[in-house]
Design goal:
single chain, mainly alpha, two-stranded antiparallel ribbon, flat
Length: about 350
């Protein structure tokens, strides 16, 4: 009996081994088949992508002059790295081959196509029936819309009985002129341009007053009543009063140095943020005064007074020679702010 049980056990074990070997062989075959299928699919996708690249090169004519752009930015390269639109994959003005032209075909598609072709494909995906207008067509439409709106504005202006003008040669913070005025800013040149604009808009006989910032050249030779901007004059009065008050002038100088230190030092700025966080106060930044910006002195002093406690604590923790504002300084600042805010 014992020998029969042993024989049956050995038979079952042998059968189990055969089943396991068979299952392993089948799994290996299925795995190899799946690997082969994935490899074939990968090769098909790569071949399709290569065909797509060649088709884009053919359809887009792949040349800057034909695309009417100066250069095409390579999105994966540094800002100064540009590609020509040819199929050679060369840097513009260089004999070195573009590093991404072969390694990443999908990247090269975008580099070769140019932004205009990318936009065409995007719009075609949204609406295949829509035809993008050319650059010249867009320019013509913009000019036509400008003339249309200008005529509407002229018609509205012609209905009014009187017109008051304001004039200033505005510039940006970088001193770039908003309106190009190639001539010298003399009274004669300014008057000539203003007279021409009034003629163009048909209001020369309707202008009753010209408001300027106080520059004498702005209103001369036009035979118009000249008024100085009250807001600009008030700003000049406040600035002059601050300069002529020794205590406020000293506080203003100290505040500028204090704000400049915290705005130029990342360590000081981080310390100020940390102190405000520990004091459970909202994180705010100091505001620097800008000479040409109205109210900037008020805003600087107001923020300095608001952050007086956090700024004092931050300065105490930092190793710096920047002098802190005293209690008398803060009292004077508060008194000055109450006057400037008309409270």
């Amino acid at each position: 009996m014992h020998s029969e049980l042993e024989a049956e056990r050995e038979r079952l074990q042998a059968q189990r081994r055969r089943d396991l070997d068979k299952l392993k062989a089948e799994s290996e075959e299925e795995l190899n088949a799946e690997r082969k299928r994935l490899q074939e699919r990968k090769e098909e996708q790569l071949a399709s992508l290569k065909l797509e690249v060649r088709q884009y090169e053919k359809d887009s004519a792949v040349h800057l002059e034909e695309l009417d752009v100066d250069s095409s930015r390579c999105f994966s390269c540094p800002p100064l790295c540009y590609m020509t639109m040819g199929s050679s994959g060369l840097h513009k003005g260089s004999t070195e081959r573009h590093p991404h032209s072969l390694a990443f075909p999908q990247h090269r598609v975008f580099a070769v196509m140019g932004m205009r072709q990318v936009l065409r494909d995007f719009v075609a995906t949204l609406d295949p029936t829509y035809v993008l207008p050319t650059r010249k067509a867009v320019k013509a439409m913009a000019e036509a819309k400008y003339q249309q709106e200008k005529e509407k504005a002229k018609a509205e202006v012609l209905k009014v009985p009187a017109v008051s003008l304001t004039a200033d040669m505005w510039t940006s913070l970088n001193m770039d002129a908003y309106l190009k005025f190639p001539q010298a800013h003399t009274a004669e040149n300014l008057a000539c341009v203003k007279s021409s604009l009034m003629e163009e808009w048909g209001i020369k006989s309707k202008v009753t007053c010209l408001v300027t910032d106080g520059a004498s050249a702005c209103g001369k030779n036009l035979k118009l009543r000249h008024a100085v901007c009250i807001a600009h004059t008030l700003n000049l009065v406040v600035k002059k009063a601050l300069e002529l008050t020794p205590v406020l002038s000293t506080i203003r100088t100290k505040a500028r140095k204090l704000v400049g230190y915290f705005r130029s030092s990342t360590t000081a700025n981080e310390k100020l943020d940390l102190v405000q966080e520990h004091m459970r106060k909202p994180k705010k930044k100091l505001i620097q005064e800008v000479e040409t910006r109205w109210n900037s002195t008020f805003q600087m002093l107001e923020r300095v007074a608001e952050l007086g406690e956090p700024v004092g604590a931050a300065l105490a923790a930092l190793q710096t020679d920047i002098p802190a504002l005293t209690s008398d300084d803060y009292n004077n600042i508060c008194a000055c702010l109450s006057i400037l805010s008309f409270s």
